[in-house]
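Hi support team,

I'm filing this because I wasn't sure whether my run with S-adenosylmethionine finished correctly. The job status page said complete, but I'd like someone to confirm that the output block is well-formed before I use it downstream. Pasting the exact inputs I used:
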Amino acid sequence: MGFEQTKEYFDERDAYYKLHPEICFHVQDFMTVNLDHLKSSIDELAADFAAKDLTLKGKGFLDLGCGDGRVLAVASSYGMNPVGVEHCPILAEESRINIRNLSKFGTIGTVVEGDLRNTRLYDIQDFMIVYNFLTLSIDVAKIIHSEGLPGTLMLLEHFAGEPLVLPHLKYVKRIGKNGRVSMTDLYVNA
Ligand SMILES: C[S@@+](CC[C@H](N)C(=O)[O-])C[C@H]1O[C@@H](n2cnc3c(N)ncnc32)[C@H](O)[C@@H]1O
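And here is everything the job wrote out:
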């Protein structure tokens, strides 16, 4: 399943949500709308890995607060093993539906319903990359620092012009092309 097909699918899904207020209410403007921006960040990460003779393929990718699963689907299109945690039951179900709809193209992903701060729901050590779109980001950084492996990466999408200070992780760089609205910074559990 290529990135372009994933993007096309979620463009159609956004149109579907608009006709379904019960889902739209939850989705609103909170999802990563600009998947090209997400792609540019993951492309840069893939290039950084390749420079060290590493690959993103097969790596664990965790989206803490995964919404409707679109970030998981993009991560899958890069051959990563995505898991999402989402506390809203409607969105957790929506994530599952979207992964299932895309599975015929090879998309994989697992969705866990619950609070991302409950680390009994997932093993942070299974994940080399943790994605977070401005949801309890300091708690996420704390979990990575206290329970994750050294070298675990965190991609933080946010709206602030300047990089946000995450007290427990080392700032690496702004990654990907700047989104029109949001931007992404890369941190590491040093
Ligand atoms: C900004 S949205 C991002 C969704 C998705 N990661 C994306 O980028 O498209 C944040 C998501 O986190 C979820 N969320 C908020 N607090 C949470 C918590 N304590 N545990 C799990 N999910 C949470 C929200 O329901 C929402 O779907």
